[in-house]
Amino acid sequence: ISKKVQVIYLWRHKSVIDQELLQSLPNLKVIANSGVGMGHLDLKLVASFGVKMANATHAVSSSTENTGMALLLASARRLVEGNTSILLYHVAISSGMEYCEAHFLGVEVTGAILGIIGVGSIGYKIALRAKAFEMNILYHNRTQRKEQEEQAVGTTYCKKIDNLLQQEDFVMVVVSLTPQTHKPIGKREMELMKPTATLINISQGTIQNRLVTALQTGVIRAAALDVTHLEPLPTDHTLLKLKNVLTTPHLSIKTEKATYVITEEAVENLLAALNGLPIP
What b/e sequence results for 156-178 when a residue is b if at least 16 CB atoms lie within 10 Å of its CB, and e otherwise? Predict the structure, then answer.
């Protein structure tokens, strides 16, 4: 049966594509990935077998952009803590303990500075959403956007990432995991950020090891993460014990519409590759 296999469809990075598998599938032509990031794959190895790679760049954009803004807002206004506090309020009142609403004060989003690291199609649309909240937007990218594109969303380009980090109130990491973008935010970068800053990560999990220390020591105020190095995080992981961290289980593409469109785009990519056409 292995000789009949021409395509592989990966859903949520569960399958391992290694040399042994590729050698066992002599007629494999294309691998379709259910998402944008392909850091879990050895692309050079795949290419060495003459196999094409395709990802769902269009299908996941809207749901990922919305997740990024949702995390920013939820962290800024401490929505999860506020929800929990309703239960704590009743417990405190019934036990005669003091309950203080000031413990749940959040920070303003309107007028705040948002720094976006990685302004491709997803990062650009996040800037568009942030503009609706009247945020001041800075961005760092390998290449600067066209002037009319910057003006359309009111962004300012920072050629050096340090300039962005020193000014922002919120930093959102929106770069796919590649050898060039591996570990975009390290200890040095976090120490450049304001102690009142919040880090939002919707793209890669390589940040979390340095992040724990920064959050514990007050280097930055808070973090909101949809992506972690281990998914799901172990129940005893330090990040899950910190009050200034909001974590979600990679929800960025988990909507009914996104799931359907991802599959639809994957099928289009697979059919194009099988028919010798450019992958859309």
Answer: ebbeebebbbebbbbbbbbbbbe
Q: Do 261 and 165 share a structural domain?
A: no
Q: How far is CA 259 from CA 11, 235, 272, in A?
A: 10, 27, 20
What distance separates the 2 farthest-apart alpha carbons in the chain? 73
Q: Please indicate, yes or no, whether residues 27 and 164 belong to a single structural domain of this protein.
A: no
Q: Do 220 and 124 share a structural domain? A: yes
Contact yes or no for 135/112 (Cβ under 8 A): yes
Question: Quick check: 64 and 34 in contact, CB under 8 A?
Answer: no
Per-residue model confidence as pLDDT tens digits over 29-69: 999 887 766 767 888 899 999 999 988 776 667 888 999 99
Whether 92 and 125 map to the same domain: the answer is yes
> How many domains are contained in the chain?
2
Of the candidates 230, 211, 216, 217, the one whose C-alpha atom is nearest the C-alpha of residue 171 is 211
Cβ neighbors of 241 (< 8 A, separation 6 or more) are none
Do 170 and 264 lie in one domain? The reply is: no
Give the pLDDT confidence of 141-184 residue by residue, as tens digits.
Answer: 999 999 999 999 999 999 999 999 999 999 999 986 555 555 67
Q: Are residues 130 and 10 both part of a single domain?
A: no
DSSP per-residue letters across 126-191: HHHHHHHTT-EEEEE-SSPPPHHHHHHHTEEE-SSHHHHHTT-SEEEE-----TTTSSSS-HHHHH
Domain enclosing residue 96, as ranges:
61-247
279: in domain: no
Residue 219 is given by DSSP the state S
